[in-house]
Amino acid sequence: MKVTRNQPLLFIPVIGALLYLVFGISWISFSDAWLLFISDDVQQLSLLQTYKGWAFVTISALFVGFLLRIQQRIVDSLSHAEHQFQATFEHAAAGIAHLNECGQFLRVNQEFCRLLKYDESTLLNRCFQDITHPDDLAHDETQLQALLHGDIDHYSLEKRYITYDGQLLWARLSVALVPQYDQQPRYLIAVVQDISAHKQAELQLQASELRFRTLLDHTPSISVQGYQPDGTTIFWNKASETMYGYTQKEALGRNLLDLIIPPAMKNTVRDVVSRMARTGIPQAPEELRLQRKDGSEIPVYSSHAVVPIPMQEPQIFCIDIDLSEHYRQERQLNFLSRYDPLTQLANRQHFNQELNRILRQAQETQQPLTVFLLDLDNFKNINDSFGHATGDLLLQQVAQRLQLYSQETRLLARLGGDEFALMYQGLHDEQAEIDIARTIMNSFQAPFIIPDHGPILIAASIGICAAPRHMDNAEGLLQGADAALYKAKASGRNTFSLYSQDLADQVREQLLLETRLRRALDEQHLCCYFQPQVDFQSGRMQGAELLVRWIDPEQGLIPPNHFIPLAESCGLIHRIGQLVLEQACFVGQHWRQQGLPDIRLAINVSSQQFGQAQFQTLVHDTLMHSGFPPHLLELEITESALLGDEHSVIDTMQQLRNLGVRMAIDDFGTGYSSLSYLKRLPLDVLKIDKRFVDDLEFDEDDQQISQAIIQLAKIMKLSVLAEGVETAAQWSILQSLGCDSYQGYYYSKPLPKDEFVLLLQQESRQPNTPLQEGASTSH
Q1: What is d(CA 97, CA 461) in angstroms, rounded to the nearest whole number?
Q2: What's the average model confidence in pLDDT over 16-27?
Q3: Quick count: other Cβ atoms within 10 Å of Cβ 457?
Q4: Contact assessment for residue 433 and residue 464, using Cβ atoms and an 8 Å cutoff
Q5: Which candidate in 293, 433, 637, 755 could, as Cys together with 751 as Cys, close a disulfide (CB 3.0–4.6 Å)?
Q6: Phi-psi region of 55 (alpha: psi -120 to 50; beta: other; left: phi over 0)
């Protein structure tokens, strides 16, 4: 800038030279004439000539000194200007570089080197293209060409440089072209400012805004809308499109009041929006019923946020949650709390409530009321044979058929499982109740048509209890009907029974017995007796069957036929079965460790226990924990346990056989299994039922049946064992028929563990000779 300010000084020497020339010519031309005018004395004139010469020299010296002083001032000024330029260039807070038109660096300052982490010499051998990020290079070169062609006089842009260590530097670049001067080529001046922090903040802000918008826009169940204070829509996410039916394009720019606010609410909403914008305080969250595009109502939980914007009006955001599903679930829960979802009938809770209400009204009007409790016979077989889906279809058809007998004065409910309840009013005597029961039972004579399964026949048992003749409260009516139903089932099913006091006593006794049985299991009052199984040929004990016994501290020994059916009906049979299995494995292993002979231990497995998915796991784990050899464990199952899914039964038995466990069919000949089915089962033993052995010496049919079973077992390569052998005649006949082994009182009754051990020890000391007829009766 000083060079520019002192530029007129450059012309002073020229002017001085011209003045000196004019002065010299004038001095030479007029000085002599002036001297002659002053004096004509030759001596004086000579002296004046000498003075004139000294004056000329002095004036010339002064003039030259003046010119040299001016020249020094110019040189000093230029030197100072160059020093200032150099200092400014080197110490500027921004990076500065000079480049030729090809982009090669001509000079760079310290800040430029610091920003890019290059030393100066390295940069001077490079072009700006070498250190520019590839994605930003095209735009930079386009702007440069426009500058070189004179289309623009400068340009600025944001770009990324690649520093010496490979990092990225965000910078703001400003470029200007210095025109050609004094035969010097034109060059580019580039000014670079580090904007990395600013760019990072900008990118973070953009990312934050993107996350915010993405979150709001893609939250599927929360509608978010933004409004200006006048109600103009400025934001509308995808959930709003779904909830209200307007697309984002349709909604933006329109007024909130015209979009989703019902006419009756418009004035109120307008005031609320105005107040929120004025005060900055959002409206308290509340439930509202707003309006969809199609005019339908939608329940929402609505809350608001007021966002202040500097130097602008605030923005109001509304967050709506669709409550339609909530209300639907509420209605569904309300329905499920009162009705059965499968049959759409009243459930137990609703039936009890209605029964109490109607019973109070009936008592006030002295009207009789009767409860019919209905249970499908052998419904479990349907589920086991055809699957639960078929069972559900059957229950639905049963409900539809029963609805024919449920009019306005009657109540029908599904209490659970395959149990239904009907309530009738106005039946004044037992005959009317019997007629209703027979009518319902007759309706079951027609088959139920199940898709893909054809017709299915099923019967029902019914228990009847009336108020006020039998009971005077709802709970008593249901208990009485349940007692009557229990009797109907015990009478052979497919029948009905009316309540009586005897039934109540029986039910009460069963409940008490169940309670005592649970206590007996907890207090370990159940134990196992052992009945020997003897080989016909050698006469020696080859195994024993474990028979569960209940030793009650008060009543003593309670027979199994008193509590096993109860255990099966109340689910305790699983605990009892596990107890017997553990006794067999742990006691049997204990005997082996004491050196007693290895014998097979057989246990009965109930159909319920065998049908459990975890049964084979239970057997495996018990064998592993006890160490008892699997081949010494024999599982006895009845033919009724085989009536389930054929593939499942065979798979379960095969898994047990794979463990090494022996499998036996108990009470063979009393079930309904076909021989084609039995031959596919992985079996080891057939057991002849005691009923065929009892009259063996008198009944020829029993002898033929026993003979057929033995021959069948031989054909199937199975061992056969006879149960309940009590006399020598029975023993002799079975031996002659080729039976392999037997058990029964003829050899020994079931013995407690300690007594059986003594028998086993005695047996181990006897010689291995066949037992003579009747020789073991002393046992």
Answers
A1: 104
A2: 76
A3: 9
A4: yes
A5: 755
A6: alpha
